[in-house]
Structure formats: structure tokens, C-alpha cells
Design goal:
- The chain is α/β, with parallel strands linked by helices and 450 residues long.
- It has 16 helices and 20 strands.
- The strands form 5 sheets. The protein has a 9-stranded mixed beta sheet with strand order 10-11-9-8-7-6-5-2-14, sandwiched between helices. Strands 1-17-16-15 form a 4-stranded antiparallel beta sheet, with no helix packed on it. The protein has a 3-stranded antiparallel beta sheet with strand order 18-20-19.
Length: 450
């Protein structure tokens, strides 16, 4: 792999493009009735997604970039769950009819920090107040260090179909440096408990670029992880942003690998997973050949949302909980980020919406371009432009970013189609950025205009 290309494009500070426009471009939504109207306009019977954010952990992992609060007491968690139930009720009241929830994702924080009966109660509230489709996919993020057999059984009883386990690294030196001690044995016990409970579809999360991490330790982690045979892996590069996440200041910057070492680690992990029988999915996911992600990629039906690569093709995603983001046909909506402010809004009988973004026709056009290139590494600009009523030259003409990528041999352009060179898979975000009209620009005020 060319060192010059690595230095020029490798892991540039570009968005992950789990949405377009990206969250920094959301603006304050002064008229909260707009959000209620969006909920009310969800078509009857249309399959809908939910995201529930549980922003609590028992201890802080120093690499963490999530919105979470550390608590040793249960009272703040119980109070938060009361608010979450109230928000579910408010959403139910805003709907004109029962929803057909077909996809649920519990994120964190650590969603399994709550008690088993509390989790079952949440799922019951969703079914009873919002309504679920006959076929429901429910996923939950798990910290294997705190998963009990009772909680695993409750997940199975509640109808959870997929669990995503945080692994990151099994290297003891790395674990000590990031304040996350987690043995292979503890992880294997969690896997066994989940499978015994009927939660058989499992994902593992791995991270490269951590302090003291090496290519050898990355490969050793993969070897230990694949022995448990999860269906999927998500592999992310550590983002060191201590100015925004103050706990990251506990990490010794001198122990962080440089850009070249990070690239070697990422590629070593990818090669080890492929050798173990996993297929590369998009930028940073891997799946067994018979997994739904692999099938979706092969058939051009892979999608991308706030959880990364997915088979979820729902138009509507309702976000519940502090900082949760939803997506509607009309645009994006994000709840208040601080849990206290979120709670006070809901306690006042209000939907806790804070920011939003109303999509324009051009936004929808560019969003589809970005999703397809992020998922397929190729995009038929001319065909997508025609389906949205735009001239493809809006994208193709006088686009210096595309010209630079082409001149560097990273993309091929012909007959209105752009294809990224998969040898340089890591540059796909740079291709997506060439379609981004807002990159490097400030946000705009929220507008009701379509």
C-alpha cells in the first residue's frame, strides 16, 4: 500500500457518514410541534425502527467517545427509566395509530446495566404502547464484564435477537492502558449465557489504534475472538479527542501508534478475519457468508445508519432517551443531550426534541449517493440523479475532490458511474466527502421548507 496515499488520505478527519447531513449540521428546532407532526405522519403499517439510549456505565473506559454517565448507584438509572417510559407514552400519544416496530436497538452506555425485570418492562411498554411487527429484530449492546446469567435469560425472554459485545482488545497491556480489564474467559462466558438464552446472533466490536497496541496483539485478539464464532465484527479506529472527551486525557499519548502503525493494525485485523472465513462488509464490518449483512451486500441491499452497516431499510427511526437521534422522511431529530435536561422536558409532558434538520430534495439526492458508495464502493451517479430529478453534472462537473481522487488512481469514472478502488478501501469516506455539500461549512438554521 502506497505510503504517500496513506499519508494523504489515511483516516482523514472525515465523518463516518452514518447520516447525511451529519449531526454537526443539525440546528435548534424552535417549533417542537414539527416533531410531533413528523411522528403523526408515519404511514399506517409501515415498518419502523426504534433506538433507545441508556446513558449509564459502572466505570469509564478511557477510550470511550459515547454520551454516558458513571454511577455506582441504581437510583439515577431507575429515575431515568421512569422518564424513558414517559417518553414512550408521549410518542404513543403523538401517533395517529399503532406503529409497526420491526427494528429495535438498545445503545449506551451499557444498556444491560438495568435489571432483568426492568428490561422486560421496557420491551413490554414498546409492544403495548407503540406496537410491533410480527417479525421483530431487537439488538442490545453488552459489556460482557457485567452481564449476568439472569440478564442474559431476560434478554431471551424479552425477544432480543442480536447482541453486540464490546471486546476492543484482549491484550492485558492495552486493557490496563484504557481502564477496561476483560479476559477471554469472561467474554466466552457471556457468549455461552446468551446462546443458552436463545440470543444466538452475536456481534463483536474491536478497536485498533489503542495505546500499546501492536499488529501482533491485534491478530492475537482476532484469533481469540473468532474461536467464539460471532456472526459479525465491527472494527473501528480509536479517535483520540481529549479536548472533547476529558477522560481520554488519562491515556498516555506517547503510547498511541502513529498513522502508519494504525493502518498496519487495521489491515492485519482485516486479513485475519478474512482468513477466518469472514467477508468484508463496507468500510469496517465483517460477517460470515450466510449472515444477513453478507447477503445484503451481495444483492445491493446493504444500508448505513447511526449503528453502522445494517440490513434495516426502514424510512423512520424514532430515537428515545437522552441524546438519541431519529430519522424521518422529513428529516432528522435529536433529543436533549444532558440527561437532566432531557428528563425535565419529558417530566413537563413535552417531547424532548432539541435539534433537527429538514431535508431538502438535494439533501436526499446526495444522501443516496453517499450511502451507496459507502456500502457498495461504486455509485451510478447518473441513475440516482435521474431518480431524484437532478442533473448528474451537479456532482460530476467542477468537482476538485473527485478530480484529485481520480488523478491519484483511487477512483474510476465512466459513463456517470464512480467506482472506488477497493485496494484503498479506507479512502471511501473521501469519495463520500466529494458528494457532501456541507463539509467544512457551518450549519444552517432549521427550516420548515421541504
Amino acid at each position: 500500500m502506497s505510503q504517500a496515499i496513506m499519508e494523504k488520505y489515511g483516516e482523514a478527519r472525515l465523518p463516518r457518514y452514518t447520516s447525511y447531513p451529519t449531526a454537526p449540521h443539525f440546528a435548534a428546532m424552535p417549533d417542537k410541534a414539527i416533531y410531533r407532526d413528523w411522528i403523526a405522519s408515519i404511514p399506517s403499517g409501515e415498518r419502523t425502527s426504534l433506538y433507545l439510549h441508556i446513558p449509564f456505565c459502572r466505570s469509564m473506559c478511557w477510550y470511550c467517545g459515547c454520551h454516558t454517565t458513571i454511577t455506582e448507584r441504581d437510583r439515577p438509572i431507575l429515575d431515568y427509566l421512569d422518564v424513558l417510559h414517559r417518553e414512550i407514552e408521549l410518542v404513543a400519544q403523538a401517533c395517529n395509530q399503532s406503529l409497526s416496530v420491526g427494528e429495535i436497538h438498545f445503545g449506551g452506555g451499557t444498556p444491560t446495566i438495568i435489571q432483568p425485570d426492568e428490561f422486560i418492562a421496557l420491551m413490554d411498554a414498546i409492544r403495548n404502547r407503540l406496537g410491533c411487527a410480527p417479525e421483530l429484530n431487537a439488538a442490545v449492546e453488552i459489556d460482557p464484564r457485567t452481564l449476568t446469567a439472569e440478564m442474559a435469560a431476560a434478554l431471551g425472554q424479552a425477544g432480543v435477537t442480536r447482541a453486540s459485545l464490546g471486546v476492543q482488545s484482549f491484550d492485558p497491556a492495552v486493557q490496563k492502558a484504557i481502564n477496561r480489564i476483560q479476559s477471554v474467559e469472561v467474554t466466552a462466558q457471556a457468549v455461552e449465557a446468551l446462546r443458552k438464552a436463545g440470543v444466538t446472533r452475536l456481534n463483536f466490536d474491536l478497536i485498533y489504534g489503542l495505546p500499546h497496541q501492536t499488529v501482533e496483539s491485534c491478530v492475537a485478539t482476532v484469533e481469540a475472538a473468532v474461536a467464539m464464532r460471532p456472526d459479525r465484527f465491527a472494527v473501528f479506529g480509536y479517535a483520540h479527542i481529549p479536548a472533547f472527551k476529558k477522560h481520554q486525557r488519562m491515556i498516555d499519548e506517547a503510547a498511541l501508534p502513529d498513522a502508519h502503525a494504525r493502518g498496519d493494525q487495521a489491515e492485519a485485523i482485516a486479513k485475519a478475519l478474512v482468513v477466518a472465513g469472514y467477508e468484508r462488509i463496507g468500510l469496517d464490518h465483517f460477517a460470515l457468508p450466510d449472515d444477513e449483512l453478507s447477503v445484503a451486500q451481495a444483492s445491493g441491499r446493504l444500508h448505513r445508519n447511526f449503528q453502522g452497516y445494517t440490513t434495516d431499510d426502514c424510512t423512520t427511526l424514532i430515537g428515545l432517551g437522552a441524546s438519541a437521534i431519529g430519522k424521518f422522511a422529513q428529516g432528522y431529530a435529536q433529543n436533549e443531550v444532558p440527561p437532566g435536561l432531557y428528563a425535565s422536558r419529558v417530566a413537563a409532558g413535552e417531547l424532548a426534541i432539541a435539534k433537527g434538520y429538514h431535508l431538502t430534495p438535494e439533501d436526499r439526492f446526495r444522501a443516496e449517493l453517499i450511502e451507496r458508495v459507502m456500502c457498495d464502493f461504486t455509485v451510478d451517479v447518473a441513475a440516482i440523479a435521474a431518480s431524484h430529478g437532478f442533473d448528474p453534472e451537479l456532482i460530476l462537473r467542477h468537482n476538485p475532490k473527485l478530480d484529485e481522487l481520480r488523478d491519484d488512481g483511487l477512483i474510476h469514472m465512466a459513463a456517470g458511474t464512480i467506482r472506488a478502488n477497493e485496494q484503498y478501501r479506507f479512502i471511501v469516506r473521501s469519495v463520500a466527502a466529494a458528494f457532501d455539500a456541507y463539509l467544512g461549512k457551518g450549519g444552517r438554521a432549521f427550516s420548515k421548507a421541504a
